[in-house]
Amino acid sequence: MSSLPASSLLTPGLPRTAARAATRSAASRRNWAALLDAPALGPAEAQALDAIAQVRTVAAGALIYTRRDPAHSLVALLEGDAALGLRQGDGQFRIERMVHAPGWLDLASAWLSGTHSLDAQAVSDVTLVELPRTALTALLDDDVQLAALLIQALAREVRTLTLNTHELMHKDAPARLAAWLHQRCAPLPEVPDQGHVLLRERKRDIASQLAITPETLSRLMRSFMTQGVIDVAGYNVRVLDLPALRKLAQDEAVAA
């Protein structure tokens, strides 16, 4: 059954303001469920998080926070794309990781009562939600289930960073690129063993994440095309052979 537009929620027996509130409540619960990877998150938990959450917007190109700023809150991305990395003295931003909404920008620093570990910059216009540590601590003291969901979210972030570190240390450049493409590949159900990747970032930003030069990135993409693994048209990458891409991603560098 197809989903109904928001306007269909307006019925003669439901005041317009109540309908808007219901729509906001449903959207809020979806956002929290996505951030906590908890599809069954209840309305009570979502409302409790809403009560302490602070929402703000940041324009594309502006800093969200710097690694010198005190981290008083957990920070998540509700809408848009943001980059984590280091802002250099010449104003250039060296990207280490991209975050696409919904996703966490900093789930850890506030618990350590220090500063953010990296700079964060808005790549597009973004909407952020922040959970002040003090208020969140009080909430979690009264809600064991919500505390468990947050611990699991933090554990997933740690696992992702651990895997990324392993790849940088033990995989050569082709394997890192293959793994990066494979992680972002959406399968094409109508074509077995094929997929599609939409490149949302500039070439130099992708290269920065993979710890290679833009020239090396271009060379590797051409190599993958020559091998018949991918085809590239602008910002669209068609994966022609998913098993081959998966094998390239699993290859580890040979020790000297």
Automatic annotation (TrEMBL):
Keywords: DNA-binding, Transcription, Transcription regulation. The keyword Ubl conjugation does not apply. Transmembrane segments: none annotated. SMART domains: HTH_CRP. InterPro entries: cNMP-bd_dom, cNMP-bd_dom_sf, Env_Response_Regulators, HTH_CRP, RmlC-like_jellyroll, WH-like_DNA-bd_sf, WH_DNA-bd_sf. One of its GO terms (cellular component) is cytosol. Pfam families: cNMP_binding, HTH_Crp_2. Residues 171-243 form the HTH crp-type domain. GO terms for molecular function: DNA binding; DNA-binding transcription factor activity. This is Crp/Fnr family transcriptional regulator. It comes from Azohydromonas caseinilytica.
